[in-house]
């Protein structure tokens, strides 16, 4: 019987560190890290996410500044706002909530965010630097998967890691992060032959395919660490890709959904904000 | 006994295509693709490479423009030249030969090349786009490895590929290119445990570690395709990473050194130049 990885508990430690950092800044008479969030229109998902970001920001003693724009805004006006925020020394990070209305070119506009304030790690420059192994902001979900693995205390260097899924925001960056930790990394996907056998080679398995309850014990090597990044909504309930109970019987560690990877992501975003602040201020 | 992959022959076909493209442009009264090459100082390697680029350029009916700068040039002057070439509509590709003299920040200066003219695929923006699976210029050595594999006719999709080495210009982009072809890709490196066993899983093995004659038959699965990207100089002779004769006994295809990957790279650079031309002109 394996151990359940407690994402909330790990996030709590990081939250305390961030809170302490913000307090210290305040006590030193300095400003605290400031996050600019932008929403365009009334997309329900965007508003939910931005509200949780603002709430966590305040809770940690950081400063949120929200810009709620009308759906009818032009691309030029939105770019002007981003450029204003890029040049504003009192703003450390910029989060543009996606999706944007159809008349705005999402890629075009996102790419305008200064890479030094792109704390979600989505600009081409940040991605390029990340893949070269240089200092860069990393997409938070991938980073969260890595943090949960590190927290188990299991050795990563030299071990076989299999990442199931190759999305730009989870699969590929998770593989890169684990390669940076000197793991031997294999990326699997829908076209992989003998998928179960390949997954069974993994000392550490990261599952990010978005197919709920699709990875059972026949994918798992005994004693493996299993990180479930899946978050599908099934009958209104957030559900992971891994069949938790049966995998837990074989694995050494399994991250649950909810309570695993997702519990860390917004906190890691705030941690990136503090990193951007350090670069911006000093 | 396996087949020897003939890089020169494959390059020849691509050269003919490029020559035909340039001829067609000329016949249509259009200008031909133009490559700007820049050398700073008298580094022997740089001069050797730039001369071979210029020679091939002319041979294919493309236009080379060479800028030979004095070692004492300032960073600002070099950046000014790059920006002039960026804005020059008659220039399609820019190759800045590295290394640069020590007083010039290589990364800083390279990043100034407009990503649309960065036919060597080294700017952060190009890399970021490439890793997202978007249209981008790809480092030519990695691309050469892929072309040699494709030329064997062996199925790539779903197959196990092992890339041995994780450099930014060969290992990582080769892995990404093969992932784009729907292979199941594993990246190995100096910290990999049980290296021989992992390599033996490969239907296709790409070796790029730069340790001459270090990969013998005990790394090879019977019938595998083996691509040798190693180019070390041993007693003045270019030598690959693979022990060619013994690996050829087991593999289905092996690329030799010289005559393999290296025979394609400059031609692929010229192919990128033609792609840049198409984007620039139309």
UniProtKB/TrEMBL annotation, chains A, B:
EC number(s) reported in the record: 1.5.1.5, 3.5.4.9
Single GO biological process annotation from the record: L-histidine biosynthetic process
Assembly mode: Homodimer.
Function summary: Catalyzes the oxidation of 5,10-methylenetetrahydrofolate to 5,10-methenyltetrahydrofolate and then the hydrolysis of 5,10-methenyltetrahydrofolate to 10-formyltetrahydrofolate.
Record keywords: Amino-acid biosynthesis, Histidine biosynthesis, Hydrolase, Methionine biosynthesis, Multifunctional enzyme, NADP, One-carbon metabolism, Oxidoreductase, Purine biosynthesis
Protein name: Bifunctional protein FolD
Biological or metabolic pathway of the protein: One-carbon metabolism; tetrahydrofolate interconversion
NCBIfam families: PRK14172.1 (NF010769)
PANTHER family: C-1-TETRAHYDROFOLATE SYNTHASE, CYTOPLASMIC, C-1-TETRAHYDROFOLATE SYNTHASE, CYTOPLASMIC-RELATED
GO cellular component, one term: cytosol
Catalyzed reactions per annotation: (6R)-5,10-methenyltetrahydrofolate + H2O = (6R)-10-formyltetrahydrofolate + H(+); (6R)-5,10-methylene-5,6,7,8-tetrahydrofolate + NADP(+) = (6R)-5,10-methenyltetrahydrofolate + NADPH
Binding site for NADP(+): 165-167, 231
Family annotation (InterPro entries): Aminoacid_DH-like_N_sf, NAD(P)-bd_dom_sf, THF_DH/CycHdrlase, THF_DH/CycHdrlase_cat_dom, THF_DH/CycHdrlase_CS, THF_DH/CycHdrlase_NAD-bd_dom
Stretches assigned to the Tetrahydrofolate dehydrogenase/cyclohydrolase NAD(P)-binding domain: 139-280
GO molecular function, one term: methenyltetrahydrofolate cyclohydrolase activity
Family matches, as PROSITE patterns: THF_DHG_CYH_1 (PS00766)
Domain Tetrahydrofolate dehydrogenase/cyclohydrolase catalytic as annotated: residue spans: 5-120
Gene from which the chain derives: folD
Record family assignment: Belongs to the tetrahydrofolate dehydrogenase/cyclohydrolase family.
Domain of life (superkingdom): Bacteria
């Amino acid at each position: 019987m394996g151990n359940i990885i407690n994402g909330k508990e790990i996030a709590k430690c990081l939250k305390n560190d961030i809170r302490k950092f913000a307090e210290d800044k305040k006590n030193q008479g300095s400003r605290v890290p400031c996050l600019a969030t932008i929403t365009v229109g009334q997309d329900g998902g965007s508003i939910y996410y931005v509200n949780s970001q603002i709430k966590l920001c305040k809770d940690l003693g950081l400063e949120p500044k929200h810009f709620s724009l009308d759906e009818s805004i032009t691309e030029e006006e939105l770019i002007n706002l981003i450029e204003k925020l890029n040049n504003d020394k009192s703003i450390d990070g910029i989060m543009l909530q996606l999706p944007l209305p159809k008349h705005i070119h999402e890629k075009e506009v996102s790419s305008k965010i200064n890479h030094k304030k792109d704390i979600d790690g989505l600009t081409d420059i940040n991605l390029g630097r990340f893949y070269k192994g240089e200092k860069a902001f990393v997409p938070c979900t991938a980073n969260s998967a890595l943090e949960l693995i590190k927290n188990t205390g299991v050795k990563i260097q030299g071990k076989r890691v299999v990442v199931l899924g190759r999305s730009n925001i989870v699969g590929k960056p998770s593989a890169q992060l684990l390669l940076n930790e000197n793991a031997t990394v294999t990326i699997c996907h829908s076209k992989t032959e003998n998928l179960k056998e390949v997954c069974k080679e993994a000392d550490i398995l990261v599952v990010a395919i978005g197919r709920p309850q699709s990875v059972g014990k026949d994918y798992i090597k005994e004693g493996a660490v299993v990180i479930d990044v899946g978050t599908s909504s099934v009958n209104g309930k957030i559900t992971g890709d891994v069949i938790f109970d049966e995998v837990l019987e074989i694995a050494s560690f399994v991250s649950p959904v909810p309570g695993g990877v997702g519990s860390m992501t917004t906190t890691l975003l705030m941690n990136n904000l503090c990193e951007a602040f350090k670069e911006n201020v000093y």
